[in-house]
């Protein structure tokens, strides 16, 4: 029998085998830096050991959780006064003043050490919400939302753009392709820098996109060095919004635009309504927010640092000022409930088998729980993750 006869007689099994091999190849695909394109369920918890050493995930989880639960004796790493790099060398023996907002960037950094892989595994490379668009996939609607902020920041080919709180670079890469601008991202989290660089290289965008590890409250950039700045659901982590807006103003060139999607309470929020307060506190706890500000707080802060506020809009509301949206930003997490509960079983089994480090199931449970607070915040109309503020730095 010739090869061609064998192939033609076994076309179906050979095709299945080829598909299996290629799938396995893709699944196992690691780039030269050893990073997977998508974390596997067996990699979850502390960045697969790259962000937090396996034996210390539980200590970091306790320290994070105790930041919010007042009054409990916090048996935690004293890392809130140390950088996370230093903290990985100390044992869990310190006590931490919970709610100490001056330590926010550190506890936020720990939050992302704990959740970044789970976010990528179960959501994708863009760590934000988007308004759904009729007959468009989540990804397509997400990219329209990212294109929109790029256009609000006036980004064009050849410009230098800053992505404030860039995560693993989901928006950065979409905006670089859409605008043609050269994008620099900054994130407090070292593990996200590694993930972002790996994604940029894999996407062939490592010449157009770069990322630095740093604190957006004291950015390592010269005054007047960017043509445009944007922030996608990131400045909400700042203990004081004015501090990060002051930095955005400083590094932006005169005449440049700063556009940001903010997490805020809306005019529907009533601080005397116990249920409203409960929902917002749950959102803060499950998303590492030192506090939740109002939509007027962010607009006033922008003016106070010197920006001219050109326009603001809650993009969760209809009509959307840029394109026709359909449904609500929280539909995706409502539809995902069954999937997240299945994921929770997987994570519990992996932790029971010792494959996922102790503490991973608690982190994942926190994320399952916070979807209820986020959905409630959206359904009651008291919270929006996409309050758009578009500002300009005056020419002088
Ligand atoms: C802007 C912020 C993050 C916004 C969203 C990207 C994330 C908020 C809640 C996250 C998630 C909740 C449930 C998780 C699920 C249990 C798990 O199995 C898979 C990942 C989740 C879907 C996860 C994904 C990201 C969020 C939607 C904040 C932090 C300022
Ligand atoms: C919800 S993620 C959004 C990431 C990205 N904008 C996106 O949409 O995918 C928030 C980001 O803000 C970053 N961040 C939070 N506090 C920070 C700080 N003080 N300095 C720099 N980055 C910070 C986090 O590390 C994270 O990357």
UniProtKB/TrEMBL annotation:
InterPro entries: Methyltransf_11, MeTrfase_SMT, SAM-dependent_MTases_sf, Sterol_MeTrfase_C. One of its GO terms (biological process) is methylation. Residues 111-394 form the SAM-dependent methyltransferase Erg6/SMT-type domain. Keywords: Endoplasmic reticulum, Lipid biosynthesis, Lipid metabolism, Membrane, Methyltransferase, Microsome, S-adenosyl-L-methionine, Steroid biosynthesis, Steroid metabolism, Sterol biosynthesis, Sterol metabolism, Transferase, Transmembrane, Transmembrane helix. Pathway: Steroid biosynthesis; sterol biosynthesis. The chain crosses the membrane at residues 12-30. Its EC number is 2.1.1.-. It comes from the Eukaryota. Its main location: membrane. It is found in: Microsome membrane. It catalyses: 24-methylidenelophenol + S-adenosyl-L-methionine = (Z)-24-ethylidenelophenol + S-adenosyl-L-homocysteine + H(+). GO terms for molecular function: 24-methylenesterol C-methyltransferase activity. It is a single-pass membrane protein. Gene3D superfamilies: Vaccinia Virus protein VP39 (3.40.50.150). Catalyzes the methyl transfer from S-adenosyl-methionine to the methylene group of 24-methylene lophenol to form 24-ethylidene lophenol. Belongs to the class I-like SAM-binding methyltransferase superfamily. Erg6/SMT family. This is Methyltransferase.
């Amino acid at each position: 029998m010739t090869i061609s006869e064998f192939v033609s007689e076994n076309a179906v099994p050979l095709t299945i085998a080829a598909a299996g091999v290629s799938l396995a190849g893709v699944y196992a695909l690691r780039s030269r830096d050893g990073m997977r394109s998508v974390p596997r369920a067996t990699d979850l918890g502390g960045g697969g050991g790259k962000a937090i050493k396996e034996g210390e995930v539980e200590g970091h989880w306790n320290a994070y959780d105790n930041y919010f639960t007042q009054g409990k004796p916090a048996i935690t790493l004293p890392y809130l006064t140390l950088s996370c790099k230093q903290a990985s060398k100390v044992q869990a023996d310190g006590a931490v003043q919970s709610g100490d907002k001056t330590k926010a960037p550190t506890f936020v950094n720990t939050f992302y050490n704990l959740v970044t892989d789970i976010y990528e595994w179960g959501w994708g490379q863009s760590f934000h919400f988007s308004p759904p668009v009729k007959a468009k996939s989540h990804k397509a609607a997400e990219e329209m939302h990212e294109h929109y902020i790029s256009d609000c920041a006036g980004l064009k080919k050849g410009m230098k753009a800053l992505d404030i709180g860039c995560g693993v670079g989901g928006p950065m890469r979409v905006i670089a392709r859409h605008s043609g601008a050269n994008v620099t991202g900054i994130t407090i989290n070292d593990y996200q820098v590694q993930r972002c660089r790996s994604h940029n290289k894999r996407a062939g965008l490592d010449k157009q996109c770069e990322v630095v590890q740093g604190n957006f409250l004291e950015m390592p950039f010269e005054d007047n060095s960017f043509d445009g700045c944007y922030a996608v659901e990131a400045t909400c982590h700042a203990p004081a919004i004015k501090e990060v807006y002051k930095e955005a103003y400083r590094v932006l060139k005169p005449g440049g635009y700063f556009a940001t999607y903010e997490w805020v309470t809306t005019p529907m929020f009533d601080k005397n309504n116990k249920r409203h307060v409960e929902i917002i506190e749950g959102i803060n706890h499950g998303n590492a927010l030192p506090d939740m500000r109002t939509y007027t707080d962010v607009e006033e802060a922008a003016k106070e640092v010197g920006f001219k506020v050109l326009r603001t809009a809650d993009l969760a509301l209809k009509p959307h000022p840029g394109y026709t949206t359909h449904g609500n930003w929280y539909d995706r997490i409502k539809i995902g409930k069954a999937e997240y509960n299945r994921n929770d079983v997987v994570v519990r089994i992996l932790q029971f088998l010792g494959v996922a480090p102790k503490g991973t199931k608690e982190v994942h449970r926190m994320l399952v729980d916070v979807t209820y607070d986020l959905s409630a915040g959206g359904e009651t109309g008291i919270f929006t993750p996409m309050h758009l503020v578009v500002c300009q730095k005056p020419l002088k």
